[in-house]
Amino acid sequence: MHEDTKMHGLKNKGLRKGAVSTSAAVTIGLAATAPAYSLTGALGHGASETGYQLPIVFILSVIPMFFVALSYKHLTSSAPDSGTVFTWGSKAIGPRFGWFGGWSLLLASILAGVAATQIIVNSAAIILDLTEPSLWLHIGIAMVFILSTTYLTALGAEESARTTMILTIMQYGGLIALAAVLFLHISQGNTATTAEPLSLDWFNPFAITSFSAFLNGFLVALFIFWGFDASLAMSEETKGSPEQASRSGIIAMAITVVTYVIFSIAALAYAGVDSDDASSLTFKDNIDSILTVLAMQIIGSQGAFVAAVIIALSAFSATISTIMPAARAALAMATYKAIPQRFSSVSATSRTPKLATWTIGVMTLVIYVILTAISESVVKDTIHSVSIAVCSYYIIAALSCVMYFHRTAFNRWHTVLSQIIFPAIAVIILLVVGAFQAWNMMDPTYGSSGSIAGVGAVFLIGVATLLCGVPLMILWNLFEPRFFRGETLPLERAHMVNGDESNNIQQ
Question: What local confidence, expressed as pLDDT, does residue 447 receive?
């Protein structure tokens, strides 16, 4: 008896194997988390909730994400498929779960592109020294940004991965330099007068003032770790074995959490959390743009320019890194007949899904233009609402791991932990966190756009767009029922086999 953990019946989609190195795959995962603009938006709000316990909250919040990353690792080893959560959910749970997981991933990627576009527009306004750029300038910058990132992504996996690596190195270089200067000022005592000295107590979870403070900080921290899975969408194109490709997400996650923890320590020790201090992380004029504020404080008048460049690099590389997996998810869905088959086309020269790539890019641009024309606050609320889609497809990914390996994992204690128990814990935590976040978002005062019929607009944007997938799924089922009958991706679980039976598929 031995284990058969490989998923069968997966199709070659025409992508170029070996186009992406392991280091480039890790870089794609790092870029997709967008550390520069994630930090500038999360540090102030996280510190306002948890105070000096923000570093330990970052560490605790990464635990369920690490468990999700373990799920991705095991599933990528068994099925290095560009559809990731769509393919795994369809094989391990059922076609409707897989389809909805794929829809959630596509939606999250498009909304993330909208967020990055807004970041680029804001950064460009700072770089060009424009206090109130016109609507047409907003749209012009957005068009240049989205079309250029989409073009670079469509060139090919090797070219877009190389571009992402260069931009990510530059972004991390800027963050490392900024953190180094912060620590230098801290060592010299040049900090905000209200800032507390660096202490090991910042890593004490029992020092968090209340469960509510922890949970709110946890919500802020949890979603800035999103994006590590972008590297695993490139597994069909990554050099080496599936096992080697599967490690890229874990490595990206580890580097990201170290970055966030170190930078949060530097920021807290330098600026403090006194909301009445104009230098503080939680001061009302600082809380939404911490990176810019810190850069101005330690560099001077040119600090805003430097911060804007770093944030722009972050947004640019993040957009490329989210378009790539979204396009490949669409490619996989079309290959297995879950969406129109025209999206399964791959360019003969670049070996990339150009139609899917340009569709994702154009949809991002159209949504951004429409929302910007309505109100800039709607764009901001769209950024907040992405958390619902992220929660949805991470839950399906972790649940897929539990369902797929439950027949073989109990042969060894470490596989029980990493394939069943840890992913199951992630499912429970993300369900609770997602429900709590959705409840918060229903509050009419949540976000910038107010409410509609007494319900927060952020909730309606996030939930309504996600639930749009249900009628689309029903409609496609009427046109192409083979996928939903399990004919193109039949249900399958890892199982024990005798001798030469490893090629059989156990339903």
Answer: 65
Please tell me the pTM assigned to this model.
0.90
Q: Are 158 and 166 in contact (CB under 8 A)?
A: no
50: left (phi over 0), alpha (psi -120 to 50) or beta: alpha
Under-50 pLDDT residues of the chain: 502-503, 505-507
C-alpha 59/C-alpha 425 separation (Å) is: 16
**CA gap 265, 258 in Å, rounded:** 11
Give, in degrees to the nearest 5, the angle at Cα 35 between 387 and 463.
Answer: 10
Alpha-carbon distances, residue 128 vs 51, 192, 286, 344 (angstroms): 35, 30, 21, 41
The two three-digit tokens of residue 407, written as one number: 């027949």
> Residue 230 and residue 248: Cα distance in Å, rounded?
10
Q: Which residues contact 302 (CB under 8 A, 6 or more apart)?
A: none
User: What tokens does 50 get?
Assistant: 């948890």
Q: What does the block give as tokens for 72?
A: 């991705």
SS3 label, residue 97: helix
DSSP helix/strand/coil, 362:
helix
Closest CA to 376 of 142, 99, 205: 142
Residue 4, H or E segment: strand 2-4
Closest CA to 387 of 433, 321, 444: 433
Nearest partner of 150 among 121, 117, 126, 125, judged by Cα: 117
The answer to whether residues 504 and 353 touch, using CB atoms and an 8 Å cutoff, is: no
Q: From residue 318, give the alpha-carbon distance in Å to each of 113, 233, 430.
A: 8, 14, 23
And the tokens for 227? 């994006």
139: tokens are: 């749209």
The contacts of residue 494 (CB under 8 Å, 6+ apart) are 3, 4, 5, 78, 404, 405, 407, 408, 409
Which pLDDT belongs to residue 367? 87
Q: Tell me what pLDDT residue 84 has.
A: 92
Contact 315, 120 (CB under 8 A): yes
Cβ atoms 155, 361 nearer than 8 A: no
372 CB neighbour count, 10 Å cutoff: 19
Tell me if residue 98 falls in helix, strand or coil: helix
| Among 175, 321, 177, residue whose Cα is nearest residue 248 | 321
- 408: three-class secondary structure by DSSP: coil
CB crowding 104-132: b at 16 or more within 10 Å, else e: bbbbbbbbbbbbbbbbbbbbbbbeeeeee
Residue 480 neighbours by CB under 8 Å, 6+ apart: 337, 338
Q: What is the pLDDT of residue 499?
A: 61
